[in-house]
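Record Penicillin-binding protein 1A, 752 aa.
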Amino acid sequence: MKKKTRKSVKRKRSILKIIGLGILGLFGLFLIFIGSVNIGLWGKIPSKKELSNFQYQMASEVYSADSVLIGKYYLYDRQPVSFTDFPEDLIHALIAIEDERFYEHSGVDIRSLIRVGIKTVLLGDNSSGGGSTLTQQLAKNLYPRRERNKTNIVVDKVKEMIIAKRLEKIFTKDEILTNYLNTVSFGDNTFGIESAALKFFNTRTKNITATQGATLVGMLKATYGYNPRIFPEKSLGRRNLVLRAMYNNDFISEEQVANYSQESLNLDYREFDYNAGIAPYFREEVRKEMLRWIAEQNGDTDYNIYTSGLKIYTTLNYKMQKLAEEVMTEHMTNLQNSFEKSYGSNAPWLKDKKLMEKIAKRTSTYKRLQKSGLSHEQIIDSLSNDKQPRIFNSWDGDKEISASTMDSIQHYTKFLNTGSLAVDPTNGDILVWIGGINFEQYKYDHISQSKRQVGSTFKPIVYTTAVEQGVSPCTYFSAEEIEYDNLKGWSPSNSGNKDEAYLNYSMEEGLSNSINTIAVKVLEQAGIDNVLTMAKDMGIEDKLPKEASIALGTGEIKIIDLAQAYTSYANNGKHIQPNLIKGISNHKDSVLVEFKSELNKKSAFSKETSQIMIEMMKSTVNSGTAARLRNTYGLKNDIAGKTGTTQNNKDAWFVALTPKLVHITWVGLDQHEIGFSNTSIGQGANAALPLFALWMQELNKDKDFDIYTRPNFPKPSAAVQEALNCDPVKRDGFFKRLFKNPNKKKSKKFNG
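=>
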């Protein structure tokens, strides 16, 4: 019996010895494994030096002149902030739910790892949570895991532990929290607490409340599943769990938990999306300007607009822009309805098959199919039959319908587009920029890219030249239509049915009522070459046609260049270049550069001519083609202006000039082949002028805009008043009427 007992004891000891050796062996292998990870056999681990010098990829911010964040440029939407910007409740929420022993461990919490190991592995309790500390999570944020197989997960975990230990030796606990909150992902390419606070609550980190902080911290467990915009109820439950954890860790009282838990989420969601948000065309132009500025640094800097966290301070007035966009939506909705009704069932996008095919040829889809070897007929057949669910945008709301590519072309061809720009002529600041009706659908910017015939908005430049050439403002010109023999019988006519055969207009009357026949005769007096020189001296660099028809605005000019030309009238003959950016700072708020527009050194025309032209254009508003500013919209501001309508009603224009504003609006279709069905709808006074009138009405309601709405033009000198002191219209005398045949068109040679 004793023999048997000794043998069993000996056997047990052998087994225990084997188990012990096995455990020691496994522990040794584990140590070897950790050592192999540490020396980089499983992939490089950053050194302490590299960890201490890591740089965030930071979003660059775009601000309006009135200090509103209007957009960002980024690869990762991240805006780092300092520890002092973190409210105490935010820190408490994070520690309570993510790492209760944060201030006690040195990067790796062995106690938590053992707890998780026992509960998860031995007891199968998956609700026990993870054992990763905030420092380990920071390591994962800085060096994201690449592959997700079981072997790599173990390697990654060990790497993160090693990195965490190194981070704890380099940074203080506050610095680790700062780096963590600046790098952690909140989903949707949003990184860091500042970007998340702006996105979900439209506020800065330093201003977030206890409940807002708990909501954002609660998202970290599952950024999609607890997204408060997508799953508000789940997010609310998670937030309250965070609040309870804060109470359990003695960070808040039971009464606070009860009160906070009763609060709703109160989201104020803002998507800083390239296609969405306020002033998207302006932001795109700023982006291009920034890329040009960076390129001009000749390699002296390594700034990157998407990663360097630059702060770009623009000239845009947020409140003005917001009002302008609201007005644009209101007016263009009504105008689009009138436009479609005017064509009815005979609309070219419905009836003109050849036109639709011509437009289809311009699309990337058509060109791709053409490259594949398909004939025109085959391509059109393919584009007409590829029906699939598509989202069709309209002013009445977006609709999903089953449609082909040709259906889509037909739908979008009919939409009127617009460009609207407001500039302060005293300093060149661009206050409002609307490049089109929908940036996501129409990327083409009608402010800086589009060149369109400007119609009668060019006439003031013709008249300005004539006055500078010594033509008296009280010179009378016959409204009679003339056929010009040396211009292939070209015979410009006036709109309307008014009998003008015996009428003669002063220059002021001819301009204010936009009389075409007189504009051509004024051009003769001014000289085409002189007019082209004047246009250039006023800031229009694009080459204009050396033709008599330029008097009627057949030259194609960008809106921004036309605005620059009109600033000359507010500055006694000197134009100023419109400016988008006031200054650029780095992420530490150190100013890198400031921009300021200066008046052109050379005057295009005299102060006296400037006063004469302003008085003439004031007549356009008071009694001429823009009179509806007064009698329809009730505007009493001191305004000069000019309407414009191009041939076949393709383009509608209005230019408004005040002492502190140059405002230009254009309305038309992107497809040049289609115009308005009639002048009544398509004239500048109807299609373009309301965009300014409705906007100015809104500005007049707000005292904050008094600096722009209340100023008056300086009183013209006595000499200018005398020069304009004449009757607007003179009728031919008896004998002249006796020998003139109003039904026979006069012909002559153009001498301009």
